[in-house]
Amino acid sequence: MLDAIQAAVDGLTPGRTTKETVVVENGGTVGPTSEVHAVDLPSYTTLDVRGPITVEDTGDDLVVPIRARSVESIEIPNITVNGNPRYGIWVQSCADVTLGNVEMALYETSSIGLGVRIDDDDGDRSRNVSLNSATIEGCAHHAIETYGVDGVGIGTVTTADTGGCGLLLNDTTDATVGTVDATNPDPGGGYAGFRVANGGGQNVTVREVIVRGGARGVFGVSGSSGFTVEHVDIEGTTSQGILLQDCQNAAINGGIIRNSNSEGVRIDSRDGGSHPAAENVTVQNLRVVDDRATPQQPYGIRETGPGTANNAILNNDLRNAGTVTDLEVSASSTETRGNVLTGEEPPDDGASGGVADGRYVLENVNSGTVLEAANASTADGANVQQWPANGHPTQHWDVQDRGNGEYELSNVNSGKLLEVANASTADGANVQQWPANGHPTQRWTVRELGNGEYELSNVNSGKRLEVANASTADGANVQQWSANGHPTQRWILSGV
């Protein structure tokens, strides 16, 4: 199969300076082989593989279905790889690489068995790489790894049962990542759902990391600096929920860590002069808890190590976070403020309730798009979604105080009220419009957070109004979910 694809690629116009495309409609099987076997992409090539490539290699790690070395302007809109390749995709020292939708199911029969690797070759760094989405399961090592890369944009990475990380950024700069959702990364090992290492992290932002089980949730190490994770949802790791070791100028800005078997969060510096100390690390707005019948998480947040200094641990809810202690700090220069420990009540955070009656546009803080009844519908049960502001009355809401700090939001276009469908109290229940009927599912509390931002909570369920999955896409659904501090649960109310 790979030979046929290579022949088609080689048949494109030699020396081209604009992209030409090869489409592979059907899948096929590769292997076994006694030598390295790969499709090598030249510059200005689009390869769209619409059928699955299955690798059945019985020897060494010799099959790399797609490879690109020292070329530019390549694109792979779709690819599915199954079996046991060395790497599913291997990109070395390339520029302007676009990966669309990647799916891989890789079983552990090889010593490498990595999904996607993007790296440098002899110091010539790769640059300007984008990946829309990847779903990878079962590989022997990392699902996605970069090493020596500048300029990365990644949408969603979903992984399961990997022998290494879900997403690993080594020596990688100027990266933006949407969501990393990893189930059981490196069970019994030391990797994480998301890891930044080996001096990486400069100007790296990750919107959300979701991890269930496995070794760790987030792991920053080896002089990595300048990275931010906006929100985490980590549960059931065998080691720390988050380990920030020898990192500088890093931030974890919110979310929840639950039921780790080691510290919920550890900030640490290793011995010896080969690693810089952890410094200027911020951990804030987290809920860290062990709510198992027999708690095993010894510390909520713990700071350790020689030279560790000048960190900030702020506004974290650490009630029932550690069996030893909720919060332990080793450096006198580390700031601790606004944290709530077991037996304490949360301090007044300065937030206030209420908003004046009037007509508003509700802009989601995470996405920058606004709340509307979809397609300007006036029907009962019409869905509510987010969409870029366009001035239509379907994006305008009349907010009216009904007493006791409760409000109704009426869509100006339809005259119907914002409600949780079927009066559900479940996480993920849909939000729609419906004629007024006096039920608490049609009433909302409005809490001012400052900076013009508000949280809206359904009176019937107590859950927050949010955009599902923290999506920034036009038309993304609006639902209710338990409070988690994510910007997708915050709204800016602007008068019309």
Low-confidence stretches: none
Share in β-strands: over 45%
Binned, the helix content reads under 10%
Please provide the count of β strands: 41
CATH topology assignment of the largest domain: Pectate Lyase C-like
User: How far is it from the N-terminal to the C-terminal residue, by CA?
Assistant: 60 Å
User: How many separate structural domains?
Assistant: 2
What structural class do helix, strand and pairing data support? mainly beta
Average pLDDT rating = 92
The CATH architecture of the largest domain would be 3 Solenoid
- Oligomer type: single chain
> Count of helices?
1
* Biggest β-sheet strands, sense, barrel: 28 strands, parallel
CATH superfamily of the largest domain: Single-stranded right-handed beta-helix, Pectin lyase-like
Cα-atom radius of gyration: 25 Å
The global form is globular
Describe the structure.
- The structure is a single chain.
- The mean pLDDT is 92.
- It is globular and about 75 Å long.
- Helices cover 2% and strands 47% of the residues.
- The chain has 496 residues and is mostly beta strands.
- It has 2 domains: 2-337, Single-stranded right-handed beta-helix, Pectin lyase-like (Pectate Lyase C-like); 352-495, Trefoil (Acidic Fibroblast Growth Factor, subunit A) (Trefoil), CATH 2.80.10.
- The strands form 5 sheets. It has a 28-stranded parallel β-sheet that branches.
